[in-house]
Structures are given as structure tokens and as C-alpha cells.
């Protein structure tokens, strides 16, 4: 289906404190996620290139050795295999976009 | 720079009635665009895979022979080379994401 309603999709748990809705196209994975205040994702990396766009909240984002506080309308892009870390300073609402598809996101725990 | 503030970037004109801010990473182009009410983009296609995510407004989106009215939180993904058309039923605010990079978007007219 070429049309996705992120308001109605089943919610999945991506990580402790990170939940939302995820969809996949041929070469991209697209997710709309809520991040609980205080959630920390320690430095990690993946071959997928990633964009994170902040819709709501304040998110501390570290890519390599650069850190920035992201707010509404700000984005980060993470090149392939570059370590990155996040800390949610408030509850956050984000759009994440990855290429290629994150195959492991097709098997996430459904929470309703 | 891995961090982008779409609130501060120079605005470009993408098409008649479509303006906004555009940024590029290694393999993706990411744009936050306003579409003027009444704007119609006739069927067109490109090799880039595309996701359009509606932040605000009502956008009639046709992909192949399927049409859907997109509203807040809804998205469309357009496979490579598939014809698609839009009509803005109200002013719309969208996030577009493409892979690979839309090289021609690096030369758009800056409008301030």
C-alpha cells in the first residue's frame, strides 16, 4: 500500500522508552516515534543512513563527537556506521527515516 | 554538518506554489515544504524513491491509479519511477524524503 496512516498503525516498542509506528518501502524505513523523558540510547551504530526530525520536545543528540540539542524543526543525519547517542530531555516526538530498510524493525514487539 | 535547523535554512522554490527548506546527506534528500492551497503537480515520476509525510493541511495524493486525501500523520511512499500527482486542498506543510539524493534540488532558486 502506498498510503500509510501513522495515526492508526499498530504501535511497536523500538527500545526501552521508545515506541511508535513503523512502515517500510522498497529502500526506506520510516518511523514516527515517542521517546519518554529521560531515555538514553548509548552510542551505537548501524550501516543504515538515518535522519531524525524533531516534531516536539528537546532531544540531546550526539553524532561522533558533536552534540546538539534538537527542538521543533531541527534534524540530525547520521552517516552509515557512525556512532550516535541520544538523551531525551523532555518527552519527544520524532520522525526517523532510514535507508536501506531496517529489516529487524519488521519484527519489533507490538504493544497495541 | 550532521545537524540541520529547517527553521533557519534559506528557503527555496521547488515548484510553482511549493517552497521550503532542503538538505542533503550522503544518500538522502530531506525537505520541509509549504504547498499553497490549490497547487496541482500533474503526474510526474523520478527514479528517486519518495516519502511524503503530512504535518498540516489536506493533500490529495495520487500514486498510479490510487488516490487518497492525506491529513496530519498520514504519509505516501512512491516507488522509483511511479507516476504521482498532488493537489493541495488547503495550504499544506509536509516533510519529503528522497533516496538517492535529488541532485537538481541543490540548484533550486533561493527566495530568502
Please tell me about this protein's structure.
The structure is a homodimer of 112-residue chains. The first copy, chain A, has 112 residues and is mostly beta strands. Chain A has a single domain, classed as Sandwich (Jelly Rolls), CATH 2.60.120.10. In chain A, 0% of the residues lie in helices and 57% in strands. Chain A has no helices and twelve strands. The A-B interface holds A 2-7, 23, 25-28, 30, 32, 49, 51, 53, 55, 61, 63-64, 66, 68, 70, 72-80, 95, 97, 99 and B 2-7, 23, 25-28, 30, 32, 49, 51, 53, 55, 61, 63-64, 66, 68, 70, 72-80, 95, 97, 99. Strand 9 (74-78) of chain A pairs antiparallel with strand 1 (3-5) of chain B.
Give a quick rundown of the structure.
Chain A is built from no helices and twelve strands. Chain A has about 110 residues and is mainly beta. The relative contact order of chain A is 0.30.
Amino acid at each position: 500500500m502506498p498510503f500509510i496512516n501513522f495515526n492508526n498503525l499498530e504501535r511497536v516498542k523500538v527500545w526501552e522508552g521508545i515506541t511508535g509506528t513503523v512502515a517500510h518501502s522498497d529502500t526506506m524505513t520510516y518511523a514516527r516515534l515517542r521517546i519518554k523523558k529521560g531515555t538514553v540510547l548509548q552510542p551505537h551504530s548501524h550501516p543504515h543512513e538515518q535522519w531524525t526530525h524533531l516534531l516536539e520536545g528537546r532531544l540531546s543528540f550526539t553524532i561522533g563527537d558533536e552534540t546538539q540539542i534538537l527542538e521543533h524543526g531541527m534534524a540530525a543525519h547520521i552517516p552509515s556506521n557512525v556512532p550516535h547517542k541520544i538523551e531525551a530531555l523532555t518527552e519527544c516526538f520524532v520522525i526517523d527515516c532510514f535507508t536501506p530498510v531496517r529489516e529487524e524493525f519488521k519484527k519489533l514487539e507490538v504493544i497495541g
